[in-house]
Design a protein that fits this description.
With 238 residues, the chain is mainly alpha-helical. It folds into two domains: 100 residues, Orthogonal Bundle (Multidrug-efflux Transporter Regulator, Chain: A, Domain 2), CATH 1.10.1660; 116 residues, Multidrug-efflux Transporter Regulator, Chain: A, Domain 2. It is built from ten helices and five strands; from the N terminus they run H-H-E-E-H-H-H-E-H-H-E-E-H-H-H. The strands form two sheets. Strands 3-5-4 form a three-stranded antiparallel β-sheet. It has a two-stranded antiparallel ribbon with strand order 1-2. The longest helix has 35 residues. Keywords: DNA-binding, Repressor, Transcription, Transcription regulation.
């Protein structure tokens, strides 16, 4: 098939298809005597696999997975896929931990008086230096009083509780920052609940996309099996 035939299937430009081949996302195309690319069903399956991988794994990971597959580095491809699944598990665990923590702290009003750093650290069983480090990491954004001292309003207190719980559970600063960015301007408990529900729905959509991607990639691999995929070595081949 011609590049345009392959491109139309996924509403891509012919240049995009050529770029994907040049980047290793598709296997090398055959060439006519005039030098024009000719694609086969193998390329159609490879392109379908890449397009399916993007929603679940993200564009960079999808590119890396296809490059590894087409270079017969199947172990590397599986490792990349497993890492994406692990990141999804971590994201779900963070949402679970936040919901658990919020059940504990939302019994108190979020509209209380600002809290200085010392009392807040004592409340959390931490040193003030830890709160200052979280501020440097971009996790907390306390206000300053007229003397320049840090004070934490109700939303900051909530965030500090969340951070402490998530850190104790072993979640990374980067993962926590991502979630807090989504909740930063959400002070009403009902709004937080809706935001977490939206987050969980997005994770479910990503999980479904990973299932679709696995099916598409498996069709590509089944059509052109490689020795590494089959788990065989040259010494055991018959």
């Amino acid at each position: 098939m011609r590049p345009i035939d392959l491109a139309r299937t996924h509403r891509l430009s012919t240049q995009a298809v050529r770029n994907y081949e040049d980047a290793g996302l598709l296997p090398p195309a055959a060439r006519t005597a005039s030098g024009y690319r000719r694609y086969s069903e193998r390329h159609a399956l490879a392109l379908a696999a890449f397009v399916a991988l993007v929603p679940g794994h993200g564009h960079p990971a999808a590119r890396a997975i296809m490059v590894a597959v087409n270079a017969d580095r199947f172990d590397d491809a599986l490792d990349l896929i497993d890492r994406s699944h692990a990141s999804l598990v971590s994201a779900r665990a963070i949402v679970d931990a936040v919901e658990t923590t919020l059940r504990d702290i939302t019994v108190q009003s979020w509209d209380g008086a600002p809290v200085p750093i010392g009392p807040l650290a004592h409340q959390l069983g931490l040193q003030p230096a830890t709160l200052r480090r979280w501020e440097r990491d971009g996790l907390l954004q306390p206000c300053r009083d007229h003397q320049g001292h840090r004070v934490y309003v109700a939303g900051d207190v909530r965030d500090a509780h969340l951070i402490g719980q998530l850190r104790r559970a072993g979640h990374s600063i980067a993962d926590i920052r991502l979630l807090l960015d989504e909740l930063r301007d959400t002070r009403d408990p009902a709004q937080v609940t809706r935001a977490l529900a939206d987050r969980r729905q997005a994770l479910n959509a990503r999980s479904r996309a990973m299932l679709s991607a696995a099916a598409a990639l498996n069709r590509y691999l089944d059509a052109w099996p490689r020795q590494n995929e089959l788990g065989k070595s040259s010494s055991t081949a018959t």
